[in-house]
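Running this now, will post back.
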Amino acid sequence: MLKPSDVGAAYAKVESDNYKCRTYLKNHADEDELDEQFLYLHNELFAEYDCSLCRNCCKEYQVSFEQEEIGAAAAFLGLMEAEFVDRYMTEDSGEYMIQMTPCCFLNGDGSCALEACKPASCSNFPYTACSGRLFRLISTIEYARICPVVFEILERLKQIYHFKPKHRG
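Update: finished.
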């Protein structure tokens, strides 16, 4: 598996192939079978991966909160909801996002200050265990730029589907 610091450079080398593979999968993969393959690879690779040693996702993406998740996070930190929103969030059309990257709740040791009540957008990231992967391949390709596990999942799917780009460019 790639080191977190190496995933960006490795991704740059295969980015074009990843988009070609997306097209290939859209035309050749069965939706349910692809979901099963993603789930299998997700479980296998994350079982042996310590995300706290990476946290590229926490460093590069803005965390989003559903309205109902804000109260739990605020209470966990001993804040009123309005104070939590004012201090940490931006709100746009009912969507609440952490104001900064890296995430302000990322501790220096790679742990999350909100671990006990972190939002679903964090808990579910990188969504490779969720169904509907065939129709969300663009986001998966994007996540492969920062997540070594997603990068590896895509590389393995290329092998499973015997994907070989016609020419490199």
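The beta strands are 64-65, 89-92, 95-98. More later if anyone needs it.
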